[in-house]
């Protein structure tokens, strides 16, 4: 899914610090109105790539082109604790000559109006994330880079953040995020790029990348898990009894599992045993295996 | 620049700076008021009593002047040094506050989020140092003028303002403002270069202990002059030929008159060059890659 006019484009980007190469020959691009996930193990080069795109560190070679100046949000970044939210917004607004309309939009989209009188040091992690996004939006950035945006957020705050990301995407912003909260990411991302040891292993639409990873197993929760387990074993399926229900591994289709179990117990719930992004991570981004062939799916 | 200036007024460190300045501006005249008196007769009687006690003990002529302790606040002798001491304190506050203001924003990674690009980092650092320097100069003008006026008031009421050269006081204030502005720019730029206020604060503490306490004690016999002593000398910059002239004060012993002069032109040039240099340095340092 490479659009004709990308808002962010990396072409053979290599980033080195001293003699260490942190990111090697990474190329991908993305169009407007997308949420893009950047996956990789610890030390894979995700944050370094964010730093390079935002201009915090130089590239050794390659080219990064963005439409407008990207805004970036790093985990652990803080605004001065004593500043009130409205003062920070007013300051940032003056710096970037934001119009009243831009200010109102940033306020409305991120919902920071509820705590504008609070000081930055008094904000919860979720509020601080929303404020950082509001500050980023004020600059009129069309590309937002979010490094671990779900860190420290409770499930409700994560839901709010995901809603916010969808709103930004609908507004035409392109959001690139990296996070280890993979199960949450897949609910909002359109495209994905994986890094392993600083190299790109795969990039493309989530659906295209998903087609390349092994199918998920299932966990079946029933009125009688013991009976369901025995029935699945008799049907020669790879079943295991767990506290969450009966786990059925392997390529058996969901319909076959359902047919076997429904004859012996009432099925309460069937879930996948491993989220899609977990499987994508295992296949393309975990540090355990060596670099596979580089693939770009479009 | 206006945006940075407006934000500055909301920062806690500026509040602390103003609070400290207010405290010192009030405390200095109060201290001078409470430790001085116009009652010269009592001081003379006390000195005479001292002579009467000491003379039989040492068995020879005991000079009244040696026993005399000046009770009055004689502005012509003391005001320039009071203003210079105030300048040194203010310069230290502005140096540390500048480091906290600029270095703190780097340590908390506020800068990374606000201005990530290399060019913007450089510009914002230069803007912050310039605004901070200008702000501290304004604060220094207010503090030193208020202090000078209130100390002259103390002199009129509890001593004497005779012999005070207003031009000299003005020159001390001007040099004080320049010194404070220089210290503010150095502090802010050091915060940017170190990308943390902690390093700057620790460096200042180490300097105070070694340069102001240990070294003067160790090399006292060699005529070692600490940085603060030199700074006070620079701010006062006594006019050539004015040293050793005693003030007329109608007492057995009068202090020397202090007449501040124009100072060395080289000092002004070097001071201005330092300010410009640290501003440029801050801009260049902010453009370094941000790996953390």
How would you portray this structure in words?
The complex is a heterodimer of chains A (298) and B (292). With 298 residues, chain A is an alpha/beta fold. Helices cover 33% and strands 28% of the residues of chain A. Chain A has 10 helices and 14 strands. Chain A has helices at 46-54, 85-95, 100-110, 125-138, 155-170, 182-185, 206-210, 225-234, 254-262, 276-284; strands at 8-17, 20-30, 35-40, 61-66, 71-73, 143-147, 174-178, 191-196, 199-205, 218-222, 238-242, 245-249, 267-272, 295-296. Chain A has a 7-stranded mixed sheet, with helices on both faces. In chain A, helix 3 (100-110) runs antiparallel to helix 4 (125-138) and helix 8 (225-234) packs across helix 9. Chain A starts with 7 loop residues before the first strand and ends with a strand. Chain B is elongated. Chain B has helices at 2-8, 12-34, 40-58, 64-67, 75-107, 110-114, 118-158, 166-194, 197-218, 227-236, 265-286; strands at 73-74, 159-160. In chain B, helix 5 packs across helix 10. Chain B contains 11 helices and 2 strands; from the N terminus they run ααααβαααβαααα. Chain A binds chain B through residues 17, 51, 54-58, 69-74, 76-84, 87-88, 90-92, 94-95, 132, 135-136, and chain B through 2-4, 6-7, 10-12, 104-105, 108-110, 112-114, 116-120, 289-291.
């Amino acid at each position: 899914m490479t659009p004709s006019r990308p808002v962010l484009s990396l072409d053979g980007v290599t980033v080195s610090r001293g003699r260490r190469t942190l990111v090697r020959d990474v190329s991908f691009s993305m169009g407007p109105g997308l949420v893009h996930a950047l996956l990789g193990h610890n030390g894979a080069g995700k944050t370094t790539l964010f730093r390079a795109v935002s201009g915090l560190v130089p590239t050794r070679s390659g080219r990064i082109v963005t439409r407008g100046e990207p805004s970036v949000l790093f985990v652990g970044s803080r605004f001065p604790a004593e500043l009130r939210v409205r003062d920070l917004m007013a300051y940032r607004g003056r710096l970037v000559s934001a119009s009243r309309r831009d200010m109102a939009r940033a306020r409305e989209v991120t919902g920071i109006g509820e705590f504008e009188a609070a000081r930055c040091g008094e904000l919860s992690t979720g509020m601080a994330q929303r404020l950082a996004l509001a500050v980023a939006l004020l600059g009129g950035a069309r590309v937002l880079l979010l490094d671990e945006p779900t860190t420290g957020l409770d499930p409700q705050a994560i839901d709010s953040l995901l809603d916010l990301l969808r709103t930004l995407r609908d507004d035409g912003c392109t959001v690139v995020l990296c996070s280890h909260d993979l199960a949450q990411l897949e609910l909002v991302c359109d495209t994905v790029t994986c890094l392993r040891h600083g190299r790109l292993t795969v990039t493309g639409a989530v659906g295209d990348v998903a087609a390349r990873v092994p199918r998920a197993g299932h966990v079946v929760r029933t009125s009688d898990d013991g009976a369901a387990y025995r029935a699945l074993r008799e049907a020669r399926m790879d079943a295991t009894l767990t506290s969450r229900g009966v786990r059925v591994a392997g390529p058996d289709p969901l319909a076959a599992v359902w047919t076997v179990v429904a004859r012996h117990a009432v099925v309460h719930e069937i879930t996948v045993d491993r989220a899609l992004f977990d499987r994508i991570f295992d296949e393309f981004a975990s540090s355990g295996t060596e670099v596979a062939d580089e693939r770009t799916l479009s | 620049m206006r945006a940075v200036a407006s934000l500055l007024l909301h920062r806690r460190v500026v509040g602390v700076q103003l609070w400290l300045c207010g405290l010192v501006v009030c405390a200095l005249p109060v201290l001078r008021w409470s430790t001085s008196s116009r009652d010269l007769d009592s001081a003379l009687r006390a000195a005479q009593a001292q002579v009467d006690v000491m003379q039989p003990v040492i068995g020879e002529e005991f000079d009244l002047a040696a026993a005399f302790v000046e009770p009055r606040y004689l502005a012509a002798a003391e005001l320039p040094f009071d203003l210079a001491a105030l300048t040194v304190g203010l310069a230290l506050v502005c140096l540390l506050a500048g480091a906290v203001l600029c270095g703190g924003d780097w340590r908390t990674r506020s800068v990374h989020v606000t201005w990530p690009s290399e060019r913007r980092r450089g510009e914002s650092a230069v803007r912050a140092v310039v605004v901070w320097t200008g702000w501290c100069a304004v604060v220094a003008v207010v503090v030193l003028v208020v202090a000078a006026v209130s100390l002259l008031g103390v002199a009129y009421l509890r001593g004497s303002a005779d012999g005070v050269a207003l031009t000299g006081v003005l020159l001390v204030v001007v040099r004080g403002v320049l010194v404070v502005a220089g210290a503010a720019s150095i502090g802010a730029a050091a915060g940017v270069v170190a990308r943390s206020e902690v390093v700057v604060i620790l460096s200042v503490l180490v300097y105070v202990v070694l340069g102001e306490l240990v070294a003067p004690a160790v090399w006292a016999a060699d005529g070692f002059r600490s940085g603060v002593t030199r700074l006070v000398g620079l701010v006062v910059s006594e006019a050539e030929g004015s040293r050793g002239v005693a003030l007329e004060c109608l007492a057995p012993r009068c202090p020397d008159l202090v007449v501040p002069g124009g100072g060395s032109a080289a000092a002004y040039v070097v001071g201005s060059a330092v300010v410009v240099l640290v501003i440029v340095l801050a801009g260049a340092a902010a453009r370094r890659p941000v790996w953390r």
